[in-house]
Write a structure and sequence with these properties.
The protein contains 16 helices and 18 strands. It has about 600 residues and is an alpha+beta fold. Strands 1, 2, 3, 4, 5, 6, 7, 8 and 9 form a 9-stranded antiparallel beta sheet that branches. Strands 10-15-16-17 form a 4-stranded antiparallel beta sheet. α5 crosses α16 and α7 runs antiparallel to α8. The longest helix has 26 residues. The protein is globular. The two termini are about 40 Å apart.
């Protein structure tokens, strides 16, 4: 874990001083037509050597394995150089398991040396987000798959050359020789991290290192998903899921500020979903698209971009309004989904969708007012008012209770007392945990919210996580082995054993963007930075330290970075220091 945080600190430092490369120009030998059709990658690559050798099989057939841990340069050479030599014999083949220190998005680079035979040599590559996944076979019992991204495959390595393969999320790599009676000298096996080389403009530090680790892990989880588009996971599904995008966008804005991947993903989903269709086949995900645009507009204040959404947004809002009866009940039919843990709880789903739709209509009214469509704004507000008179069965789950609070249907203190604080972090989910934390904050229960966050997201860190998972239950910690170790006898392989629905066993994603919510929550609710007027023209600073003694951090805005420091005085009051760029009005509470 220490090596992981050292690596992240280096990445953070480099990102602060990175100079953007000039991209978008092909060499002049290409025709204008070819240049117009070309797409240029907005990402960069970093090559990382493994930090440890975790396991070998037939170790006597591997010479110089420690050389794989040396820094590389990616260049094959005829000169004598430190190398690792794998030799297979009849019926006896070597294998090795490498650890690259933390989860990455990308692939592998192999640099081979001279050998007696120039014929390519076959090896088997297995990628894993956990040690168990890298060591497993693809079987229904294991849950491991090659869905969306290849994680188990055979490749051929050239004589005296470089081979790059793979495009997935992983930390651990197992390499197996698959042919008899061959010798394979390898100079380097490096992970290729593919990421956006952008600075971490936002930051968070406090008197509690565990809270700080949660903020940074959420930021890094989101960073891995900030690819050409903002997707939800580097291993699976690698798609633009609109539900996932809401907490992801909130985290991205708190850490990096605006980025082209955000608007690119939102526009992609819009263009891929002609109305009256629902985004990703789920009515709730079209609701999330509306809420994302409201939050996004508050941040960037770009009315021109919002006007580009107006034709689609207006038609979508009218569809929603037509699905609310005179009594204020919604009647959306297709794709009634909140998150996986509530998917079989009809009362929770119905209650949550009611609240989510009400929130979307409020957001629609806000945006239509900004766009000058007073008539549609009033229709949205009137429909939302009718819906607010209906009290759904919000006690069915913590997820539905949280949405009822955020929609203004149920007092936060009541929902927190009756549902959310009961059992602590039990009943949390990695997606809706963000909204549960928000509801606890609105109830003034910051001590409880921070404790739940430390128990729930911190529980993944306790099991060796370097990114946050698709799902998690705190009961999984009991007698569980860490994901960064071979499972000892008598211990439970948490990755193989748990998971549900579409993410059973090793198919479970251990780097899922929707789980990054605590990062956004800590910046807004604890550091206390919230946007009052679009474009961050007016920003409110209202800290809520809970049991923390101090917090400090930064928040990116279109005008520059806001710097904040809060200290608890001996009498319990909080002293705040705020530095803001010109053009921003700060309101202190």
């Amino acid at each position: 874990m220490k090596r992981f945080w050292v690596y992240i600190s280096v990445l953070f430092f480099v990102s602060l001083h990175a100079e953007p490369e000039k991209k978008g120009i092909l060499p002049p030998v290409f025709s204008q037509k070819v240049s117009e059709l070309a797409q240029f990658d907005t990402r960069t690559r970093a090559y990382i050597s493994p930090v440890r050798i975790m396991w070998t099989q037939n170790e006597e057939l591997i010479a110089g394995a420690e050389n794989l841990l040396l820094p590389g340069n990616g260049q094959a050479t005829t000169a004598k150089t430190p190398k690792c030599i794998f030799t297979s014999k009849e019926g006896k083949r070597p294998s090795i398991l490498l650890d690259f220190g933390c989860e990455i998005q990308g692939g592998l680079q192999f640099v081979t040396c001279k050998r007696n035979v120039t014929k390519p040599i076959k090896i088997r590559v297995r990628l894993g987000e956990s040690v168990g996944e890298a060591m497993c076979e693809i079987t229904p019992e294991n849950g491991a798959t090659n869905d969306h991204a290849m994680r188990d495959y055979i490749i051929e390595l050239p004589w005296l050359g470089v081979c790059e393969v793979g495009n997935s999320g992983f930390r651990f790599v197992r390499i197996d020789m698959v042919e008899d009676n061959v010798s394979l000298p390898i100079k380097e096996i490096r992970a290729c991290l593919v990421y956006r080389d952008i600075p971490y403009l936002g930051s968070f530090r406090s008197s509690d290192p565990r809270v700080d680790s949660i903020w940074l892990t959420g930021a890094y989880t989101l960073h891995l998903n900030l690819q050409e588009y903002l997707v939800e996971a580097p291993k699976r599904d690698r798609l633009v899921w609109l539900g996932d995008l809401h907490p992801e966008v909130r985290t991205a804005l708190a850490v990096f500020g605006d980025n082209e991947a955000l608007s690119r993903g939102l526009d992609f989903a819009r263009d891929e979903t002609p109305l009256p269709g629902w985004m990703n086949g789920k009515c709730t995900y079209s609701l999330w698209w509306i809420l994302i645009h409201r939050d996004y507009y508050r941040y960037h204040g770009n009315l021109t971009y919002l006007k580009e959404q107006q034709p689609y947004l207006g038609k979508l809002l009218k569809i929603l309004i037509s699905n609310v009866d005179k009594q204020g009940n919604e009647h959306l039919e297709k794709g009634r989904f909140l998150d996986w843990p509530t998917s079989k709880n009809k009362k929770a789903v119905d209650s949550g969708i009611h609240a989510l739709m009400l929130m979307s209509l409020d957001a629609g009214a806000e945006m239509m007012s900004a766009l000058g469509d007073v008539g549609l704004a009033e229709q949205c507000s009137e429909t939302a008012s009718r819906m607010r008179e209906v009290i759904p069965e919000y006690t069915a789950s913590k997820q539905s209770a949280a949405l009822a609070v955020l929609a203004g249907i149920v007092p936060a203190e009541k929902a927190n007392k009756d549902v959310i604080q009961v059992g602590g972090a039990k009943g949390f989910s990695t997606f809706y945990g963000y909204y549960i934390l928000q509801a606890q904050g609105l109830a003034g229960d910051y001590v409880g919210a921070i404790q739940n966050m430390k128990e729930y997201w911190g529980g993944m860190l306790d099991l060796g996580a370097t990114t946050f998972w698709e799902d998690f239950d705190i009961d999984w910690k009991e007698n569980a082995s860490r994901i960064d170790e071979l499972t000892p006898p008598g211990k439970i392989d948490v990755h193989k054993t748990y998971g549900d629905y579409c993410y059973k066993g090793y198919r479970h994603s251990l780097a899922h963007g929707w789980a990054s919510g605590p990062t956004a929550w800590l910046s807004e609710y604890v550091l206390g930075v919230s946007i009052v007027e679009p474009g961050c023209k007016v920003v409110k600073i209202e800290p809520h330290l809970g049991a923390l003694q101090w917090v400090e951090g930064t928040f990116p805005t279109p005008y520059g970075v806001i710097k904040v420091r809060h200290n608890r005085r001996p009498d319990g009051s909080v002293e705040s220091e705020v530095e803001a760029p010109k053009g921003i009005k700060i309101i202190k509470r």
